[in-house]
## 1
Amino acid sequence: MNSTKKLTEAALLTSLFIVITIIAVGTGIGYAAYLDFAVPIFFCIILLKCDFKYTVLSSISALLIVSLVLGNIGTAIWISQSIIIGILCGVLLTKNTSIIDDFVYGSIIGVMLMVFVDIYGSTLIGYSFMEEFQGYANMLKNPKFINIVFYTFIALLPMGTIFCVYFLALILGKKLNLLKGNSKKKLYMMSNFKTCGRYMCCSKKVFYTCASYILFIEILNLFGVKFEQTYIKTILISSEYVCLYFVIRDAFVLLQNYLLIKYNKVSYLRILSIVVFLSLIFSFKITTVVLVIINIILDKKIDIRIKQNIIVNNYVNKLIYR
């Protein structure tokens, strides 16, 4: 009976999505905000309400019908990307993981998804944005800097999209009374980010996996191993940038918290911030290595990462059960 109800709800929501999408895209008002944010949020909500298998069935049906009606391959590719992002965010919301872990997973999968969409698009319409950009970058005077900007953009775009969809889906899920268990805990974490945000960090597994991946890429660079294929290079380098951001952010925040607990002086934190900022500018790689080593020491010495996650969980549980 419960499965029949979920199937019916998924079918109704799919019908609603098809009608809205055809009207929105057909009139030209559905591009940008609708396809980038409304579509993934919609399917994230379907997953929270109807579970994974019915959401996948719903997404396939909706994509096929919308594609056949509109007859626009580019729009179909765009919609498929948004649907996958929505389902991804829904899955992450229901998992027993930290919010920072969710953003790491989501951002890296988002990078791969962007590359997949570009490959799919180039196969169907004969134009690849990434390959064209690489061609133009090599013609410029400073291709290294241009490539850094490009890979940073590819890393930041899915990161920003995942964050927006994740947060907006939590808000809408609360309004519709769909949140329970892990998704409800994550809503309280996001809502009280000012209070417990500084204690949110990656799990040990994710942090050390990211650090190991960065080390792996740097070793390849050291030995002169180069990937000429645009898509492979984009995935590897953009994923490294994602890992770098979260590793540096995590290591810096944990070091700040340790100093605050040990000495209870805000001035030390300000000095640390200035020193780390300047060090990253003048010696980025060495500073990153030092931060990771300090983090390893803190983890071995006082298990700081686990303790911070316990602080966040205890705080959120008090809010939920008060």
## 2
Amino acid sequence: MAAPVVIAAGALAGSLPAGASDPLPAKTPAQVLELAASHQVQVFSGTVEQSADLGLPELPATGKPSASASPGSVASVIELLSGKHTARVFMDGKDNARVQVMDQLAERDVVRHGNDVWFYSSKDNTAAHIAMPARDAALSKDHQGAGGMHTPAEMAQQFLSKVDSTIAVSVGPDVSVAGRAAYNLLIEPRTDATLVGKVAIAVDGQNGMPLSVQMTARGADKPAFSSGFTSLSLAVPDQSVFAFTPPPGSTVKELPVPDKSLEQADGSHQDAMYKGAKGQVSVTGTGWETVVGTAKGNAPTAESVLQDPLLSQAAVAVPGGRLLSTALLNVLVTDDGRVFAGMVPPEQLQSAAAAQ
């Protein structure tokens, strides 16, 4: 299973949108899974709203973000897992994409146009650029989201690709998302050793595109995390939205091309928390019980967790370290600088740490 933070990040408060007025043709769970897996929608634009109620404290609006134009830091991921966020998304094939996360008084952007990828934060006017090799699609999956915010389709893929005998799949009543009728695909882990109770994915009844994703914690009645389109157009976006030039006076940093050696066998990448810890990442457990950890003394990783204002405020002391606990994800930072994360109870993180 892909690293837990990406799944959590990637993938919710409130309930699914109201039921669709015109019933869709009846489909079995297997047929809805196939519909979603085979969708080919790569041209669209719309607005995505993400809402999280994970039990994390919210920073004041004037709080300093941890990594303005630094893509994928654990702090930026956790920051997006609190409160509500709105993003405008534009896609035109695999090589043209833009995601604009609209913060209260600022905007964060990720723009891909051909082989150029830009990350920008208007809060402190910083930008980062990556020049990708020709035909290199390394960022098409991982870095279309700005600062950790991904489209519902990207998050849904994390769950759809992992459906196996350990998961119960069913289809609920039809729903309507952004004015489009959708199948309500329900995924439930068959294990009690995970914080996740249920995942609901709204699958477009016409083209199979995932329109919303909701995650409900085990034993809870309402989703703890939700992301879904509130508006959606399948028309080709204006090409001008993919053109980006850093504003005058901005600080620009050139980033190296992502290391493909971090890519896992299933095509996913190690979570942002573990970038820079190449060769020092451990994985224990499988499926929903997966725990990912870093090696002893990996100070940059541990410091990125505990020195962030939001994370340090939320982390509590436990035997052997500090624990960041949410409804869907737990992160343990040990006294010797190791970090363990998983959608599992704290005891499983402590057991994984003790075994290494």
## 3
Amino acid sequence: MTQVVIPDKLFFSISETSKLTGIKSYVLRYWESEFNVLKPDKTTGGQRRYRKKDIELLLKIKELLYVQGYTIAGAQRYLKKEKKASEEVAVANVIGLKNELKEMLKIIGHKE
């Protein structure tokens, strides 16, 4: 899959997102209804505003569906599993940091 260069902007319209990702606007709207993790911001007028993280997620979904041959249900499971693994790593990092800070406090003689 070709590498997409995402411009350094805060928000992208649905048409800009469609051009960047190569995914039709109606497909983007459909995927929003199928993938709970995909939630672009909306203006007061209801216009979708995609962020860089949304575009990266769309490209991941596109790869899962069109390149790797996942079904929508399979891609949903994959993304859910990937999110859970990411959260577990984050928790482990926080626990490790907490332990390091406790050790530093011991070294400087601070009582808990």
